[in-house]
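Batch manifest line 533
LIGAND: flavin-adenine dinucleotide
JOB: complex structure
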Amino acid sequence: MSDKYKYDFIIVGAGSAGCVLANRLSESGKFNILLLEAGRKDTNPWIHIPLGYGKHFSNPKVNWLYTSEPSDSTGNRRISQPRGKVMGGSSSINGLVYIRGQKEDYDEWDVKKNKGWSYEDVLPFFCKSESNQNKDSIYHGKLGELCVSNPPEKHVLADAFINAGLDSGYPLNDDFNGKKQEGFGYLQMTVKNGLRSSAATSFIKPIKKRKNLTIITNILASKIIFDGRKAIGISCLENNIKKDFYSNKEVILTCGAINTPQLLQLSGIGESQLLESHNIDVIHELPGVGENLQDHYNGRIIYKTNAKNTLNDSLRNPLKGLREIIRYVFLRKGFLNMGSSVVAGFIKTSNKITRPDLHISLILFSTDKAGDALHKWSGFSIIVRLLRPKSRGYVRIKSNNPKDDPMIQPNYFMDKDDRKDLVNGFQITRKIMNSNPIKKYIISEHSPGNDCQSNNQIEDFLAKKGGISYHPVGTCKMGDDKLAVVDYSLKVHGINGLRIADASIMPNIVSGNTNAPVIMIGEKAADIILKDI
Ligand SMILES: Cc1cc2nc3c(=O)[nH]c(=O)nc-3n(C[C@H](O)[C@H](O)[C@H](O)COP(=O)(O)OP(=O)(O)OC[C@H]3O[C@@H](n4cnc5c(N)ncnc54)[C@H](O)[C@@H]3O)c2cc1C
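JOB STATUS: finished
ARTIFACT:
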């Protein structure tokens, strides 16, 4: 074999899925693996301190800083789309919440001709990667690389939120990733002893000295190299200099739901008119590339509280701030060891449905929008989101230059059922927040406030002020229909030697956050590939 073909597998993108794959495929020592990452090493200390996630929303050193196209359905705003651009990808800048979704999500994937992706099939892969510090049941793993743990301490507002849920007739749930998701309870976090468990710290750091694993950071994959319809390598830009790498087995794309379809389109796989309009030769027409974009659009209610221990208080008061630092350094407790939210409720908005369709979570601080400065008064926020929205958007290249941002049009809040259901969910949430256990901590509803009461007013508020949960998925969906991009073994339809294994392959968004599901996709992909080879 010539030196040109020294790698067996080239993995493009060291995010949630790419890091898992690099670990598993290099484990036996039989294969040479190349892992390419556009971002830098994860040396920024704020990546590792859980609360630091708030610092990365506008940091170009670790974030692609995309924005969406304006849309009528969301007041023609451009909504910011953070994506991790660093070792660990979005798992290095995310809110650290560990949620897998519902059994039925995966069973529905499987029914749609994706053999091997039912809940029963994927549960072992969730457990394989997990090292759960607190839960001990058939739903959890203890021996994996990804550390999952309870928040380090309880909080009076979090307890009040759970009690508000119970008071409103919903069950207590001490494990959203166990038998049932429904109910109110504390969330689990991807945290190990006070430090973030990202895909990079969990799956790459311990094995990065493996001789058969080469990792290159600060390198942008710009085009897949084909021999006819077989992917044989990848063309990259490193400091603006073109570099080509070849694989003698497979190229695996793990660039995430925005960049994977972008890279396919740049390489001549996608809808032919789009490619031709940018002077790209069509290697294979696959109209679904970039389509089917989904995310969890949300509404935020902000409360002024008489509880004097929100993050707003601690960061404003130097003495309280110092106390937080001391508690974190010596006890691994306090706000510095906190992810985006600590408690949640997963509920049904109607008795006619069989599983939760609404996710409500409490955040122990308040800002006007994600990444903004904290309010000067003591406040907390409630995020309300539909678990399975129907609105669909797309990702399309704007030019044939790999350095240009792709066009991201999520069409959030476009579907009329989404509008009706989120308004309904918002009203239900307000009722819960008006129940005695939490009401006593509320001074006033700061936003949207008392003037926003009717369904129409709430719909208008949600359209103009709604945010997102940073869970884009589905843009290279798995399946066998006209818009499917990969089959159930994650091979790109019509092309040899090319697979995709990241958030883009989800046919439908899962009922919850997406990091744990994508790590599972990485595990499952490695298993499929190793059995195939
Ligand atoms: C701000 C934020 C908060 C979130 N909070 C949560 C949460 O609390 N809980 C949760 O479960 N999920 C959360 N998520 C979502 C979750 O982190 C993602 O769904 C998941 O990490 C996606 O994994 P991925 O492997 O598909 O992509 P990513 O992890 O984004 O990895 C893709 C990698 O590919 C690299 N790449 C892209 N293009 C190229 C290229 N051309 N060449 C080379 N490299 C390239 C990127 O730099 C990146 O490192 C959040 C996400 C964000 C951004």
